[in-house]
């Protein structure tokens, strides 16, 4: 899908053709690019999640619990540029605080494909890795994922300017109170209720609908890839570990051989090294799996942007339909001709028409309601068009980032597999040399 597609006209709520904004929505894209160059927080601040610490304490209901906290370190880029190396500012955050930050950003910036957090509990893991969220290896991978989330948000041309994000990085105390003062939860709750309602949009934006279908396919393909990778990793782990049997047999055999003993013993050591190497290999591979998982979760963020557009479009269509209904009532009241069945029309036929004063009062009230309805439709239309512009610009930004990241991850994964095979060939070459020396 290219940006040029935005020039095509789409059906509006009243059935007429409506052309997308000039420059095929490229204007917001250019604005994003300019913002990214000027406002990128990473140009002003170094950000890293440096350490992980396990703590114990009482939760909200005074029960003892064990939890993990992450040390966020920041340093001004101006100081680095001037050649100074001051100690970084640091503060501790829990995973739940990262969740609160992301939920706030989702509500405040519904048109942005929000960077995902790392998984709370491990999925698609090969059998040697623990799915326990307190497992040290898993906690370390989550630390890397949380740092990646902060870097994604801090490099985004819009999100990087948010004051709450800056306070999250720099103020250990009082940050949550600032978030709750924005009353974002009330907005989130009302939007959630609306999203859970059953509705059907008559004229959704074609491009965002295509992106919604694309996100479903992206999630499906990524899930299949991760499942396949898990099965391959399990089998590979078993094959490597079985090579430990070669090492044991060669070592025991060498004890009863005189001329062949040294060669068999050396070959056994090579087999033991080969069997042990799979642990480091698959832990490295897990890093690439985490990169794929990020885009598995990005697919849901992409769908959320499309769903919020559907909600805005649905509200526009309901407002438009209500306006059409009021105009029809005004026409029927002015002409005295009732075109549709109504309880009011039946009572007029039975008990007679309204008095002129009542009719005039109703007409005046309808005129006021119609004027308010026309203004509401105008506002809703502008809101929908602005949302589509902003969302489409961010979708293009996301696609460019996705193509680059996934290409890099898959290439590195291929290089890792090639390197692993070369190491296997080298091990067996060494074993062959041992056999030749016997």
UniProtKB/TrEMBL annotation:
<dbReference type="GO" id="GO:0005886">
    <property type="term" value="C:plasma membrane"/>
</dbReference>
<feature type="compositionally biased region" description="Basic and acidic residues">
    <location>
        <begin position="1"/>
        <end position="21"/>
    </location>
</feature>
<dbReference type="GO" id="GO:0032266">
    <property type="term" value="F:phosphatidylinositol-3-phosphate binding"/>
</dbReference>
<dbReference type="GO" id="GO:0031201">
    <property type="term" value="C:SNARE complex"/>
</dbReference>
<dbReference type="Pfam" id="PF00787">
    <property type="entry name" value="PX"/>
</dbReference>
<feature type="coiled-coil region">
    <location>
        <begin position="363"/>
        <end position="390"/>
    </location>
</feature>
<comment type="similarity">
    <text>Belongs to the sorting nexin family.</text>
</comment>
<dbReference type="InterPro" id="IPR036871">
    <property type="entry name" value="PX_dom_sf"/>
</dbReference>
<dbReference type="InterPro" id="IPR001683">
    <property type="entry name" value="PX_dom"/>
</dbReference>
<dbReference type="GO" id="GO:0015031">
    <property type="term" value="P:protein transport"/>
</dbReference>
<dbReference type="InterPro" id="IPR037430">
    <property type="entry name" value="SNX4_BAR"/>
</dbReference>
<keyword id="KW-0175">Coiled coil</keyword>
<keyword id="KW-0653">Protein transport</keyword>
<dbReference type="GO" id="GO:0031901">
    <property type="term" value="C:early endosome membrane"/>
</dbReference>
<protein>
    <submittedName>
        <fullName>Sorting nexin-4</fullName>
    </submittedName>
</protein>
<feature type="domain" description="PX">
    <location>
        <begin position="48"/>
        <end position="175"/>
    </location>
</feature>
<dbReference type="GO" id="GO:2000786">
    <property type="term" value="P:positive regulation of autophagosome assembly"/>
</dbReference>
<dbReference type="InterPro" id="IPR027267">
    <property type="entry name" value="AH/BAR_dom_sf"/>
</dbReference>
<dbReference type="InterPro" id="IPR034783">
    <property type="entry name" value="SNX4"/>
</dbReference>
<feature type="region of interest" description="Disordered">
    <location>
        <begin position="1"/>
        <end position="29"/>
    </location>
</feature>
<keyword id="KW-0813">Transport</keyword>
<dbReference type="InterPro" id="IPR034902">
    <property type="entry name" value="PX_SNX4"/>
</dbReference>
